[in-house]
Amino acid sequence: REEEKNEKERIRTDEKGEKKKEEEEEEEEEEEENKNHPTFTVSDTSNERRRPSLPSTLTKSSSSSLSSSSSLPVPPPVLPRSPVEENERVAKHFFVAMALDKLAKEVPVEVVSDLFDLNRGFLELLRDQAGKHLQMVSAFCERIGFRDLGGLLSSLQTRIWLDVRDDVAALTEIPYVKGSRARLLFRAKLRTVEDVAAASVDQIYEILAQASPSLAGGGRGGVKGQDRGVLIRAAKGIKNGAIQILTKRIREWDEQADKVESVVRERQRQEGKENEKIDD
């Protein structure tokens, strides 16, 4: 029995020793891994700050063991602009804003190009990008409930895209009417959609023909006759488009009037019930 007890104790001590050896070996392996894979830090030379060290699974040295889908890139540090660079950025934005202001005031592109020494293609691209940005911001304002601001930005978008002022921009809602034709109609005292709808086709044709002096008195055959037919069709389309816009507005006003009338009737009915309860 004593021999059996001694044998069991010897086996237990051997197992404990093996466990200790395994733990020591694991600790040594972890220390070697930490030495071989140091933490990756990014230094910012501008203000001498350091990013917090990343976990070992996201370090630069261990990224080779990970797949491309699981590895995360470390973003570069964002360096602040110097005062000179910041002033240059603000000046460029102000310079571009002045060019857009001239375009919105119906100044021709050629004049703006010569005035600011800018390429015409750059101005066209700038106007297109500004209009798209205004369209997105206007839609966002409409979505969150800022309808007044959205309407203001929408009118500014029309001014930039069509090169017209606010008082002329209302005519651009009519089909076949863009910036140049809207200005012609406005100068001829057709300043609203109602005025265009009330005008005759011949009157609208004479206004459109002012852009081509050779057609003002009527063309005879050839290309002039073809251009005259195009202008007549455009005049008819403009008049019909103005009438359609007014018809749509009248329909919307009737719907609004019906809604208001139903609300008033419901209110009167509720007031009548309340008066009856009071009398009872």
Name a few traits of the molecule.
elongated; two-stranded antiparallel sheet; 1% strand; mainly alpha; 2 strands; 280 residues; 69% helix
Task: Indicate the topology.
Blueprint: H1 2-36, E1 43-44, E2 49-50, H2 83-104, H3 109-116, H4 120-144, H5 147-162, H6 166-169, H7 179-187, H8 193-198, H9 201-209, H10 222-279
Antiparallel strand pairs: 1-2
Helix pairs in contact: 2-5, 4-5, 9-10
Briefly characterize the structure.
The protein has 280 residues and is mostly helical.
Task: Explain the overall architecture.
This protein is mainly α and 280 residues long. The chain has helices spanning 2-36, 83-104, 109-116, 120-144, 147-162, 166-169, 179-187, 193-198, 201-209, 222-279, and strands at 43-44, 49-50. It has a two-stranded antiparallel ribbon with strand order 1-2. A hairpin with a 4-residue loop joins strand 1 (43-44) and strand 2 (49-50). Helix 2 packs across helix 5, helix 4 (120-144) packs antiparallel against helix 5 and helix 9 (201-209) packs across helix 10. It is elongated, with a radius of gyration of 39 Å. The chain starts with a helix and ends with a helix. 14% of the residues are buried. Mean pLDDT is 76; it is low at 38-70 and 218-223.
Ranges where pLDDT stays below 50 over 5 or more residues in a row are 38-70, 218-223
What portion of residues belong to β-strands? Answer: under 5%
Biggest sheet, strands in spatial order?
1-2
Radius of gyration: 39 Å
Shape: elongated
Q: What's the rounded overall pLDDT mean?
A: 76
Distance between the termini: 109 Å
Number of helices: 10
Number of strands: 2
| Major sheet characteristics | 2 strands, antiparallel
What is the chain-wise order of helices and strands? HEEHHHHHHHHH
Structural class: mainly alpha
Helix content: 55-70%
